[in-house]
Amino acid sequence: KQSDLYIVLSDDHYLYRMNISDDLKVYCSDDENKLLITNSVNSDSGYRITFFSDTDYQECVSYFVVLLDKYNADDHTPKMQTIQEECKSNSTSIADHESTGLEELNALVGMDVLKQDVLNLVNFVKMQKARKDLGMKTVPVSLHLVFSGNPGTGKTTVARILAKIYKEIGVLSTGQLVEVDRSGLVGGYVGQTAIKTQEKIKEALGGILFIDEAYTLVKEGSDYGQEAIDTILKAMEDNRENFVVIVAGYTDLMKKFINSNPGLKSRFNKYIYFTDYTASELKLIFNRMCQKYEYQIDSVANAAVNVYIENLVANKDENFANAREIRNLFEDIITRQATRVMSSGLTNHEEMTMIKSVDVPSIY
User: Fold this and answer.
1) What is the value of pTM for the model shown?
2) Cβ proximity of 18 and 37 under 8 Å
3) Dihedral of the CA atoms 214, 218, 219, 225 (nearest 10)?
4) What pLDDT is stored for residue 1 in this prediction?
5) pLDDT of amino acid 188
6) CA separation for the pair 210, 156 (Å, rounded)
7) What DSSP string describes 165-206?
8) Which of 114, 182, 229, 265 gives the lowest tally of CB atoms within 10 Å of its CB?
9) What is the mean pLDDT of residues 150-157?
10) Are 107 and 99 in contact (CB under 8 A)?
């Protein structure tokens, strides 16, 4: 109901709640980046907001565009000077807004310490770039990273976001992430490894080369993995300004990998640790998957999923795959749900979207 919708505004000391009603008005001033929000007959009184960032102003304008579009779609005729009329040429729908890398990072479940580590790194890089642009002395920045942690903790996802952030702040020119493992770098005979590795490096120039399970490049005896390492180290030296390498894998194995070669140890001096998800974080990940793919879950099924996840975490071993476990659980549940619904012949919207307790696998 429209009467249940409010805009909540705040200043240093007070909160104001404005009912979204026929009287709501929003006035914009493009040249001053100001908004006046009021539900008073006298438009001079209301809540004034001044933005010191064009981006913040446009994002707020976009929010109201969507808000008023939804309101008007309900066959109401609000007496408002709509933003569509005031700022049509300047504002864009919030649905068309592409999230920044930092927004995507902050939207990830959990990872509070990791997010702060990444933010600290990004701020340091931005500072050095700003100093360089002003002709000031800069501290040499190594952007190459070691990501360590168990499977399914978000290493690849964070690497992809970091590539986007580096592009946004002007450190990398293209910002693509090229994922590779041992099989994509190491060949079976002399000379093949260097060629395969150089091809991946060329593909990653301007972005990030992400090497998963990088410790597999180091093996006992005669092996071509060292040739791949040497080729990558040379590329890191030759392309300092526009090439980043992130190596990833289990924590203990990554420490051994870095310490196995003086060249690796000198170039990889920043570590970011990915901790296992808690049960509550995994539950949130499951709920987000349901929302993303337009599934609903009834209370009994939700309780069963919670018990299942708590049992997973309580009995996890070295092979526990964190978010991948939840992806597998989700796919198992919706497969069971599909079989149940199609067998019943009740293929209406409610049945196709609702997850019930019978769809949740037993923990035993």
Assistant:
1) 0.69
2) yes
3) 90
4) 34
5) 78
6) 8
7) HHHHTTSSSS--EEEE-HHHH--SSTTHHHHHHHHHHHHHTT
8) 265
9) 94
10) yes
Q: Which is it for the CA torsion 75, 81, 85, 87, positive or negative? A: negative
| Mean pLDDT calculated for residue range 291-312 | 94
Average pLDDT over residues 14-23: 56
As a whole number of angstroms, the distance between CA 191 and CA 195 comes to 7
Sheet containing 47-50, strands listed edge to edge, beginning at the edge strand earlier in sequence? 25-29, 34-38, 47-50
Rounded to whole angstroms, the Cα distance separating 122 from 335 reads: 41
pLDDT digits (tens, 9 = 90+) for 232-243: 999 999 998 899
Contacts within 8 Å (CB) and 24+ apart, 238-241: 239/205
The H-or-E segment that residue 70 falls in is helix 54-72
Contact predicate 186/224, CB 8 Å: yes
Burial of 78: CB neighbours in 10 Å, binned 0-12, 13-18, 19+: middle
C-beta atoms surrounding 139 within 10 Å: 8
Average pLDDT value over all residues in the chain: 82
Specify the amino acid at residue 217. L
Distance from C-alpha of 47 to C-alpha of 70, rounded to nearest angstrom: 22
Name the 3-class secondary structure at 211. Answer: strand
